Write a sequence for this structure.
């Protein structure tokens, strides 16, 4: 994560905001007196919140683990050829 001072951030606000939105990389802004803060695009923020929700939801994590296990063992559901064709629009 790149870091800039609050003064540099303020002087180049538009450029830094465009960079964060375009590159999808957060930017840490440091302040001499006070806590630092991070600038992140709205899309990235929403994605991070969704990820945190899934990670904190034990039921979803169990479902993911079970799905991963059954996939590795090849013991999960396998669609028929007709179902595969329908899914793929063939």
């Amino acid at each position: 994560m790149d870091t800039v001072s609050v003064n540099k951030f303020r002087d180049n606000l538009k450029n830094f905001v465009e960079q964060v939105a375009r590159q999808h990389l957060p930017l840490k802004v440091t302040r001499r007196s006070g806590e630092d803060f991070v600038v992140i695009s709205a899309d990235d923020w929403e994605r991070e919140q969704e990820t945190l929700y899934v990670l904190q939801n034990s039921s979803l994590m169990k479902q993911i683990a079970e799905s991963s296990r059954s996939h590795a063992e090849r013991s999960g559901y396998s669609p028929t050829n007709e179902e595969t064709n329908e899914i793929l629009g063939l």
Residues 43-88 form one domain. The longest helix spans residues 42-56. The chain is about 60% helix and 10% strand. The beta strands are 2-5, 27-30, 37-39.
